[in-house]
Amino acid sequence: QSVLTQPPSASGTPGQRVTISCSGSSSNIGSNYVYWYQQLPGTAPKLLIYRNNQRPSGVPDRFSGSKSGTSASLAISGLRSEDEADYYCASWDDSLSGWVFGGGTKLPVL
Amino acid sequence: QVQLVQSGAEVKKPGASVKVSCKASGYTFTSYGISWVRQAPGQGLEWMGWISAYNGNTNYAQKLQGRVTMTTDTSTSTAYMELRSLRSDDTAVYYCARDSCTGGVCFIDYWGQGTLVTVSS
Question: Which of A38, A67, A76, B49 has a CB 3.0–4.6 Å from the CB of B60, allowing a cystine?
Fold first, then answer.
């Protein structure tokens, strides 16, 4: 069981806006930054959002992140077929002194 | 460009050990840390621990304390992760990843391609 809680699946059609939630606690999301990773089928994860809402260079502005209290969310607007992937949230946990991840959200683009 | 290239797939028997390597290029190896993260088949990501490539300091996940050792060889910009007393539930893809730190805040930014370790009798 993962420390951070994500819905196991989400879905959308091309062009739609989809949001994925990530719930934690005061020892992780509540006191540290949230990060989002995209894992395309059969590949390694890729950094999508860092420090709650910052995009690395090369990540389209269709992807955005936000955080409030002990929860965070990832929004994808203008959904495209190439966005079909698993998405993971992550945060540092002060009690565990380590990184914790969500269980991942599978996003098919129908 | 930053690259982390890992060693190839391994098949081990229960009770054995495995050592996975991760060769870094495209950046100054000693200016960053390396985290190891594993992913069991069809499952999510699990952080295993971290090593500073600058001074060799380590921080292991409590669950793996006593079974895992992380090291680096700065002469070849290579990080290593050794896991001992392997069990069937250690079967997973093992990733190395770069830890990038700015202003005291660190995060994982680049990942290796992964190494499948299968534990089976």
Answer: B49
